[in-house]
Amino acid sequence: MNRKIAIVTGASRGLGKNAVEKLTKKGIDVILTYHHQAGAAREVVASVEAQGGKAVALQLNTGESGSFDAFAAEIKTQLQQVWQRDTFDFLVNNAGVGLHEAFADTTEAQFDLMMNVHLKGPFFLTQKLLPLMADGGRILNISSGLARFALPGSSAYAMMKGAIEVLTRYQAKELGARGITANVLAPGAIETDFSNGMVRDNPDVNKLVAGNTALGRAGLPDDIGDMVALMLSDEAGWMTAQRVEASGGMFI
After folding, report:
1. Which fold has domain 5-246?
2. Contact residues for 77 (Cβ-Cβ < 8 A; gap 6+)
3. Gap between the Cα atoms of 197 and 190, Å rounded
4. Which residues contact 70 (CB under 8 A, 6 or more apart)?
5. Which of 51, 89, 103, 110 gives 155 a disulfide partner, CB atoms 3.0 to 4.6 angstroms apart?
C-alpha cells in the first residue's frame, strides 16, 4: 500500500518540524520546505529517513508568489522520482513570520510582508498545487488564536490569519466535489523560536500566557504537531470548513 504524502511549508524548525515528526510516526511521507535554513531542513529529512520514511526538502519563500510555478514543477518531479506518483495527499500551509508592531506604527512594507507570506502566499501556492493534489486530499491552513482574541501589536499579522480562516471555508465549499477537505488549525501561544522565542525565552511573557490559559501553561510544539497529525488522520475525514483552536483555553 502506498504511503500518503504531505507537503508541509516552513518545516525546518518550530511547529512545522514537529508536525513532520508526528506525521512520520503515523506513516506519512513528507515534502518539507525551508526558507533559509537548508542545514536544519536536511537534519529533518535525515530524521524521517532514520525512522523508515521518505522525505524531501525544497527551498521556498512563500512570500514570493512568482516562484510558485517553478516550485510546483519541482514537486511534480520529486513525486515521480522519489515516490513514482503523480499526486500528493495533504498540504499544510504553515510557513510564516511574526510581527509585533502597534497599528499606528505599522509600515506599508510590514503590512505587505504579512500579506504576502500569510495570505497571498497560501492562496496562490494552494492554487498552483491543486492539480497535483489527489482527490480526497486535505488542506490544513495554520491560523492563530490571535484571529479570535486581540493583543496590542498584532493587528497586521492577525488580520491575515483571519482572512485565511475565511478562505478556508471557501476552499472547503469549492473543492468538496473532489472530496478535498479544508480546515484551520489555530495555535495559541507556543514555546518555539517564533518571534525570536518570545513565549519560550521571556519568563514574563510565558507567565502572562500561562496565567491566561485554562490549562495553566504555554503550549509546546508537541501540542500542535499532535493536532496536525490528528486533523490529517483517516478518522477526521468527515470534517471540513472547521476552525480548531489548540490553545489550552487561552483567553476564554
Report:
1. Rossmann fold (3.40.50)
2. none
3. 9
4. none
5. 103
